[in-house]
Design goal:
508 residues; alpha/beta; Rossmann fold; 2 domains; six-stranded parallel beta sheet; globular; binds adenosine-5'-diphosphate
Length: 508
């Protein structure tokens, strides 16, 4: 038999370049100016947004610089990586005194972070202390941020400032930086929480800003006969105002949610938009989260969440039982977060099959109340009165449900993180909670969580009981909701696109 000749064809393997989605044109440059940013310094949701949104915008063809104060409390591991970028002197107050402005730079993940350095204002440690110190600190910061952009000769198309601490940026820009490069940029001011406005007496704000008398007027800074309001002035001067959900954008124009600025916001509502926040899905990823006992995705969540639950119970000294219904609460302990409702229903909630895990710090009355409940329901309630990122991850993964019954909630991130970790949110229908949690519909077997509308104890208890009923009587449907929640898109991508479209509308 003739030997079969095999022709060897030398295959050249063509290495295909990964197909990347084309970047939307044109490119936009944006300076983010705000008072906190994860991982350098974070006290709440603002810190998360200042980290995640710039990162998401770089994928939308935006060139982003984040300008922050260089607080002493920024961990050493970041401080030592900062590179000196320059320094100059700047006037601020009516007396003409010159203040030092240093710029320290840190580039990470496609985003440039520029820290404004000044020992006198930021050498104290924590970002917020009290208004006596904070008002001068953020007057200085807002002006120094603009001066730094001119100094670095980096003139953005858009200056995007955040909350009252950076609200004077558009005001300084137009009142004091006319004729300089930065004057041409458009400004966006985002309200993350309208409750905090930077209100202080006229003389102090006049002294620390040296703004012209004409701006101490009801249309701009004036709050009442004695006080000025920094956020109010920013809202007047910004080219565009955004807030962190559509529902909150509507709510803040009403007296109940408007924090005395509802009329001012109604006046400016032609330039007010709501864009809901997302979360950083790399940072919050149960599959890769190194702080969890068992990693999981939507396919094995039901099994692996039990392992995380048992580990959480063990770590916190709770009765170890995977069949208990574990409710988490991760929150600043202030009256905004609906803690009065939770306190009122705690005895009714504790039925022998339920455990409650609290993580938060804040007002003494709430801290004490949760300490009391821990003692009263030993083994079933654990109150962690502290700020602890690692513990937050364990609670998101190990709980069955997360409570967010807020009195008001501009967006809320904890319900988004909870859903990403397959933990079912129980929320009041307000602000971003209403926009992000679709109520469970038992007839169509859809929805992401349990909701209630009016701010009443009975309605929160009813929502918790509806959640428990599903959990204990129809586990299959509960588990389907866990999977639905994990697969819900809570990323920044969609929202970053909306911000980008807004930047494009604002022609420099
Ligand atoms: P806020 O009104 O405080 O900004 P958000 O829901 O928008 O509320 O964001 C809160 C963020 O802070 C979330 O990332 C949450 O996980 C985190 N957080 C709140 N309290 C604590 C705590 N005690 N320990 C760790 N993280 C916390």
């Amino acid at each position: 038999m003739a030997e079969k000749k095999t022709k060897t064809v030398k295959k050249t393997t063509k290495v295909e370049a990964p197909v990347e989605a084309p970047m939307p044109e044109p490119r936009r440059s944006v300076a983010f100016i705000g008072s906190e940013c994860y991982p350098f310094v974070k006290t709440g949701g603002l810190g998360d947004v200042m980290y995640a949104l710039p990162k998401a915008l770089t994928k939308q063809n935006c060139d982003v610089k984040v300008i922050l104060p260089r607080y002493k409390c920024i961990p050493e591991k970041y401080q030592e990586k900062m590179v000196y970028r320059g320094e100059f002197m700047m006037d601020l107050c009516a007396d003409g005194h010159q203040y030092y402005v240093g710029i320290m730079e840190y580039v990470w993940d496609g985003v440039v972070y520029d820290f404004i350095d000044n020992e006198e204002f930021f050498g104290w440690g924590n970002p917020y202390t009290n208004l006596v110190d904070d008002i001068p600190k953020f007057c200085f910061f807002s002006k120094a941020a603009l001066a730094a952009l001119n100094y670095m000769n980096w003139v953005p198309d858009i200056i995007h400032c955040h909350d009252w601490q950076a609200a004077l940026v558009p005001v300084f820009q137009q009142a004091m930086f006319g004729g300089t490069p930065v004057a041409g940029a458009k400004s966006v001011l985002t309200i993350h929480n309208l409750r905090f406005q930077g209100i202080y007496n006229n003389e102090t704000i006049k002294y620390w800003t040296n703004l012209p008398d004409a701006l101490f007027d009801y249309a701009v800074l004036q709050q009442d006969w004695v006080d000025s309001n920094m956020l109010k002035a920013g809202l007047s001067y910004a080219s565009m105002i955004t807030t962190v959900s559509n529902t909150y954008a509507g709510e803040i124009q009403t007296p109940f949610y408007g924090e005395n600025l509802d009329a001012h916001l109604r006046y400016h509502n032609h330039k007010l938009r709501g864009i809901v926040n997302g979360i950083d899905c790399d940072l919050w990823n149960a599959k890769t989260d190194t702080l969890l006992t068992a990693n999981y995705d939507s396919k094995d969540a039901v099994k692996q969440k039990k392992a995380n639950k048992l580990a959480l119970q063990k770590a916190l000294g709770l009765e170890e039982d995977e069949n208990k219904f574990v409710i988490g609460l991760i929150s600043r302990l202030t009256n905004q977060k609906g803690l009065d409702l939770i306190n009122a229903i705690m005895p009714a909630l504790m039925d022998g099959n339920t455990q409650v895990v609290v993580l938060g710090t804040g007002d003494a009355q709430y801290e004490d109340a949760f300490r009391y409940y821990e003692n009263a329901y030993k083994g079933s309630v654990c109150s962690n009165i502290m700020y602890d990122e690692g513990r937050a991850h364990m609670i998101y993964a190990g709980s069955d449900a997360l409570l967010v019954p807020s009195l008001f909630e501009p967006c809320g991130l904890t319900q988004l993180i909870a859903m990403r970790y397959g933990t079912v949110p129980i929320v009041r229908e307000t602000g971003g909670l209403k926009d992000t949690v679709e109520p469970y519909n038992e007839y169509e077997n859809r929805g992401n969580g349990f909701t209630f509308d009016r701010y009443e104890n009975g309605l929160l208890l009813d929502a918790c009981n509806r959640a428990k009923t599903l959990y204990f009587t129809d586990r299959a449907r509960w588990d389907e909701m866990v999977v639905r929640d994990m697969e819900k898109d809570v990323s920044w991508e969609n929202s970053a696109r909306q911000y980008r479209n807004l930047y494009l509308e604002l022609k420099p």
